[in-house]
Amino acid sequence: MEIEEIAREVVDSGYNVHTKLGPGLLESVYEVVLTKLLADRGLSVERQKAIPIIFEGLRFDEGFRADLVVEGQLLVEIKSVENLIPVHGKQVLTYLRLLDLPLGLLMNFGTAIFKNGIKRIVNNHSNFASSILRIHEKD
Question: 28 is in which domain, residue-wise?
Answer without folding.
Answer: 3-135
